[in-house]
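Continued from yesterday's entry.
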Amino acid sequence: MTKTPPNAGVIAFLSGEDDLWIPAIALHELQYGLQLLPHGRRRYGLEFAMTAFIAEYEERILPLYREAAEHAGSFRAQAHRSGHLLTVGDALIAGTAAAHELILATRNIKDFDYLSIEIVNPWRDTQPAI
């Protein structure tokens, strides 16, 4: 399905988390990237994996609510004032984490490390940073 084997740190992180939640906007970003791929074995394999992923976490997908949107707006303003670019998608992901008082797991630490939320990079470590 994918060319490289899954990262061992990510697998360990996921298997050790009983309370893992997925923001709906993250599914949007995954689907967008998937739809940009050319048709072929890789795309079909990833579509299959995405379907299985959604089925696995169906009950733990966080919709976008008012409080998350408000946090997202505050985060984008904070980013703007400090000279950072925070995309709407990333702001909504961070806003969802903040609204639910969750730790944000991401490989893209640099996109979030100046915000006032806890983050962890399962590809690198397992301890959250503030």
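--- second protein ---
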Amino acid sequence: MSAIKPAIPVFEELTGIDVVWNILPEQQFRTKRQTDVSTGAGQFDVFFMDQVVNQYREEGWLQPLDQYFNDSSLYDEGWYKPDDLFEASKWQCHGGGYSDKWTGMPITIEVQTQFYLQDLYDKHDLEVAKTWKQFRENAKVIDENESDIVGTAGRGQKGYGMNIYILNTLLRQQGTKLWTEFPNDSGLDSQGVIEAAEWYSKLLQDFGPQGASTQTWSDVLSTMQEGRTGHIVADANMFWGGLTGDDSSVADTVQIAKVPKPEGGKLNPNAFTWQISTSKNAKNSKQAFLFMMWATSQPTDTWMHLESGGVFSVRESIWKNDEYRSKVGEDYAQVSLESLKQAAPDPFDRKYPEWGQRYSEELQRAIAGQKSAEAAMKQAAKVAEDIYSG
């Protein structure tokens, strides 16, 4: 929100609406958000929405935005340019395929890419991995020939935004998906998912750092920033600032590429869109919609990314903007653009936070070597299906 805050006076002048901010620590925000919408208090007119979108939608807490989109006094399609939004973002702002109505408006997005250290690749005569087989081979070479650098690092920690965020890319590239038949067959015990879980677990066991099963995304970023691993798969927005900023010891050598894929498989990296939404009991619904439309519009988004701190846009036009590409670098912009156009986000069904957490716990056990990937995924499948049948 720091990227848009300096522009708020423009919105206030245009509309006469005063914007009052309430910025909270993440866990406190999640608690207050749920309390506000579940009790009908309506204290917050606009709030960030994440993986709980369908839980909130099916509980009747979220207010669909379609009535405002259909109101010509509030919405101008020619000015807003919805076709400029990435399909992945629009899909997630319709409940990830579970709703035909707008559950929110996209404010920023994350997409998985590959980061590698050019100096290490040159030293060991490595080519950038286009397949997961090559990725593992590169990790092996680095791990076996460097005394204080591990071959790779990856999210091992439990949590539906942690290890399974990476695994879900792998399983979709294997031609499988979450929920073969919703809500009766989770698909988590299918051969494709088991193979993906086994591959990821073995990768981190063989070439990852000590304690790989407890690494969060920030641990992975730090490992890369400090030059203690040869390459990682992580969200592209970590590159600009995180890996190329003043705190990074690898800023001069780190490079970005598209995430690997299986031999003959599809790219389809995972992606996650943060949306801004409003509740059914919001006290200022029309004003909330005007703010959301303005904040996510092409003019505001362009300003945020050219003049302020915005680094990862939900709009294709930003990634094609010459000034923005010059600011962030051609490679970063092009890899991000191509990845976003082919992204396949997770569908967050209404109980995803519950069964996704249990699924991630089973994957963590497999990464830690406490059980086989097959046993872990079979248990994850049982838990997910029991949650819906119970």
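The two ends are 40 Å apart (CA to CA). Residues 5-110+270-341 form a domain with the D-Maltodextrin-Binding Protein; domain 2 fold (CATH 3.40.190.10). Will compare against the first tomorrow.
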